[in-house]
C-alpha cells in the first residue's frame, strides 16, 4: 500500500484532467454524428492519460537527475527528489508505461482505421511515437528540449493540435473549422499552464541553467505573455460558439468566469510563490471548459 501511494504521487493525479481536455473537446464536436464511436472515445481517454503519466514520470526523473528539483524549488516535492523511488525503478516505470501507452494507441488506431487505410495508420503510429518521445525528452537527456525554451511549442502542438484534431479525425476521418479553432483554445490555455509552472520556478530554473521561455523572456514579459494567452483563447472561444448552430451554445461561456478570476489574480501578483495555486485553478478551468463544451453538444 505504501509503494502504491508513492507511485500515485509520481503519477500526479492533479495533472490528468488537463491531459483529457483536448480529447473531450475533439469528441464533443463529433457526438451528434452517426459515425461517433464510444469505444474509440474511451480508448482515446486512456491513451491520453497514459501519455501524461509518461511525461510525469520522465519529468520527475529528468529534473531529479539534473538536480533541478532541489530545496529551492517552490513546487511540490517529487518522488526522486525525496528518495521515495530510485533512478532505476523510476526508469523502469517510464519504460513500462511507455509500452502500455503504445499498446493502447495501436489498438485505438487499428480499430479506427481497420486494415485498409495504411496511410492514416502510419501517420497516427508516427504521432504515437512522437508523443512518447515528447513526453520523455522534455526533461530527460543532455538535449532535453524543455531546457532550451521549446516546452511551450510542444505543449501547444500536442495538447492542442494532436489532442483535439487527432480525436476529431479518428472519429470522422476529416477536419472542421470549429475543431481547428478549438484546438487553438486548448493549445494556448495548456501553454498557459506550463507558463505558470515556469513563472513559479523562474529563480531556481535560472540558477540551475534550465532556460525555459520564462527564463529567456524574463518575469515581466512572461506575465504579459500569459495574459495574452488567456485573452486570445477566450476571444476564439466566444467566436466559435457565437457561430455554431446548437441550442445551448452559451454553456461553454460559463468557463470564462474562472478564467477571468484567474486573469485578475495573475495580473495582481508578481511573486513566484503565488503562481503555484493558480496552476491547479487554470488546469481545472480548462477541464471545466472541456466538460461544458461536451455538454453543450450533447444537449444539442
Description of the structure:
This protein is mainly α. It is built from twelve helices and no strands. It has helices spanning 2-11, 16-28, 38-66, 87-113, 118-136, 151-172, 177-200, 202-208, 213-217, 219-241, 256-268, 276-299. Helix 2 runs parallel beside helix 6 (151-172), helix 2 (16-28) packs antiparallel against helix 7 and helix 5 packs antiparallel against helix 6 (151-172). The protein is globular, with a radius of gyration of 19 Å. The termini are far apart. The relative contact order is 0.13.
Q: What is the terminal-to-terminal distance?
A: 45 Å
Count of distinct strands: 0
The SSE string, one letter per element, is HHHHHHHHHHHH
Q: Count every helix, treating DSSP H or I runs of 4 or more residues as helices.
A: 12
Radius of gyration: 19 Å
Overall 3D shape: globular
Main β-sheet, in a few words?
none
- Percent of sequence in beta strands: under 5%
**Assembly context of the chains:** single chain
Helix vs. strand class: mainly alpha
Helix content, binned percent: over 70%
How much is the average pLDDT?
93
Low confidence ranges: none
Amino acid at each position: 500500500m505504501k509503494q502504491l501511494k508513492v507511485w500515485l504521487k509520481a503519477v500526479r493525479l492533479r495533472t490528468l484532467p488537463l491531459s483529457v481536455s483536448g480529447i473531450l473537446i475533439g469528441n464533443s464536436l463529433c457526438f451528434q454524428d452517426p459515425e461517433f464511436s464510444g469505444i474509440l472515445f474511451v480508448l482515446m481517454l486512456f491513451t491520453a492519460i497514459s501519455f501524461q503519466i509518461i511525461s510525469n514520470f520522465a519529468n520527475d526523473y529528468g529534473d531529479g537527475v539534473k538536480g533541478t528539483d532541489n530545496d529551492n524549488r517552490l513546487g511540490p516535492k517529487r518522488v526522486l527528489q525525496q528518495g521515495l523511488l530510485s533512478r532505476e525503478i523510476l526508469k523502469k516505470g517510464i519504460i513500462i508505461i511507455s509500452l502500455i501507452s503504445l499498446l493502447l494507441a495501436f489498438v485505438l488506431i487499428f480499430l479506427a482505421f481497420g486494415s485498409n487505410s495504411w496511410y492514416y495508420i502510419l501517420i497516427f503510429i508516427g504521432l504515437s511515437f512522437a508523443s512518447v518521445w515528447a513526453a520523455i525528452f522534455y526533461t530527460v537527456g543532455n538535449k532535453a528540449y524543455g531546457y532550451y525554451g521549446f516546452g511551450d511549442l510542444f505543449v501547444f502542438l500536442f495538447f492542442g493540435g494532436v489532442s483535439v484534431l487527432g480525436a476529431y479525425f479518428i472519429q470522422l476521418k476529416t477536419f472542421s473549422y470549429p475543431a481547428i479553432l478549438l484546438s487553438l483554445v486548448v493549445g494556448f490555455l495548456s501553454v498557459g499552464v506550463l507558463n505558470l509552472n515556469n513563472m513559479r520556478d523562474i529563480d531556481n530554473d535560472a540558477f540551475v541553467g534550465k532556460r525555459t521561455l520564462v527564463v529567456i523572456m524574463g518575469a515581466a514579459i512572461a506575465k504579459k505573455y500569459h495574459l495574452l494567452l488567456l485573452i486570445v483563447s477566450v476571444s476564439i472561444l466566444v467566436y466559435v460558439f457565437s457561430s455554431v448552430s446548437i441550442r445551448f451554445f452559451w454553456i461553454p461561456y460559463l468557463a470564462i468566469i474562472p478564467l477571468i478570476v484567474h486573469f485578475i489574480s495573475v495580473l495582481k501578483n508578481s511573486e513566484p510563490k503565488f503562481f503555484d495555486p493558480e496552476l491547479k485553478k487554470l488546469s481545472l478551468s480548462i477541464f471545466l471548459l472541456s466538460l461544458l463544451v461536451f455538454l453543450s453538444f450533447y444537449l444539442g
